[in-house]
Write a structure and sequence with these properties.
Shape: elongated
Low-confidence stretches: 165-176, 308-353, 536-541
Helix content: 40-55%
Length: 541
Amino acid sequence: MSIPGRVIAGRYELSTAIGRGGMGQVWKAYDQTLQRRVAVKLLRTDLVDAAGDRGAMERRFLRECRVTAGIDHPGLVTVFDGGADEGDLYLVMQLLDGCDLADLIAENQPVPWEWAVAVAAQICSVLAAVHAVPVVHRDLKPRNVMVRRDGTVKVLDLGVAAVLDPESTKLTTTGAMPGSPAYMAPEQMNGIVEPRTDLYALGCLLYEMLAGQAPFAGPTMASVMLGHLNGTPEPLGARRPDTPAGLDRLVLHLLGKQPDQRPANAQEVYRLLVPLLPAGNGDALAPTAPMDPTRPLRFPAAPQPLPGLPGPVRAAVPERPAAPWAMSAGPAAHPPRPDPDWAAVPSAAPPVPDVRSALDEANRLLGEGALTQAVDVLGAALPVAIARHGEHDPLVLGLRQALADTLLADRRFRRALPELQYIAAVFAASGGPTDAEAMEYGRQVAACLEELGELPAALGEYRRLLDLHRRVPEADVYQGFDLRERIGLLLAALGDPYQSESVLVPLLAEQEHRLGPQHPRVSTLRGHLARIHGVTGYRRR
């Protein structure tokens, strides 16, 4: 259907195929206008029915665009754009991080029952909004539920939803039975859907999270469907003795064979889950397990804990490498180093053949202003290069420097910080604490901390650097000026204007003497002191 590098609608550059949904193939892509990662779903042409009614399929796809975009809920994927391009229909959506519920179940067997309750509660919130439209999802299954790194749950793929009005229901292809047999309500097998059809699927999800398998299994689709129609699932208590009795009863209630044997709506299910939901406790900023779905309920609206930093640099270090951007086979312009974001590098980034190719490709992207894409290329290349050459190979260090510089240029300070700290430690271990590269990367660490609002840590780093600077014979006086100015301004920002003046007043005198009273740098510092004067009453004599 498509190839990497294709640009949809003159704007969205396809990068990597990341999956298939009920109606289309999904690609990781780049929005060239807003310089951000997005997901692009393209209509699967193989879904056109035997009669070749492409028009009906296109109308269903466009309905997905309108329906999904028209439901405002944080548990649904945000829709940015949609339309047609070269005969293909496309939908542009938020690109999510995290893993789907199927992987979460596989990696955490048994899933803690508190997690299962938290996932179900968040899904109920989404279903309440969807059913109010009214829309029935009709394909709620583990692959269509995403748990993000912060624990929030996103429900995916309303592409086979039945919009409950006379016109839209006619768009369902004759004979088609959207849905997945392992999670399909008995009435859905007869072509009947209503909001409580989704509640049955939710019961199947809850059962699978707790028992480790769907409530009805079999060697064939027919045997699975027969289980939904006539079977009774094994009691959860037999598989999970720790399951609260109220949760066991709720799952059986959701798995009622007839819609009227289930809870009335998603709101009622949520009400039944409330007594089982985790209460808020502890430190909201303490690290938690990755993708813990109880976190949004225990700490509503709390920011995520700061991620950990890389481990210490080992004793063995490489010889001093050449400047990283000089390693490329082609010419490279060093990106600006503004101010100094730590997150896992997206696994969907394409593999790279070698370090030099990655640097060349990153340089090309930087020349085009595509910083986000350059970060992905370098980030994907780094673990490959480490595995191939070893952590301390000069090429690997150069690649890490290139990644850090590009993250800074893209103003992704949280991810840049640990890379900068690592690089600074490598140069300090190799050339000593006053090594020029170690000092420069230390300065970038301090600037990163400052941008991230970690002002006490930034102040400590600047003071450390100033102490090292004073030990260097014939040190660059202007670098000392820079460090002293940042220290003075941070002291003021931290509420200590008197200490700030004690640093900045003598600095102003030295700069006037060396640069002259009208120099722009002197004028800027004088302005800083004038503002601090409003707090302290300081008057320059």
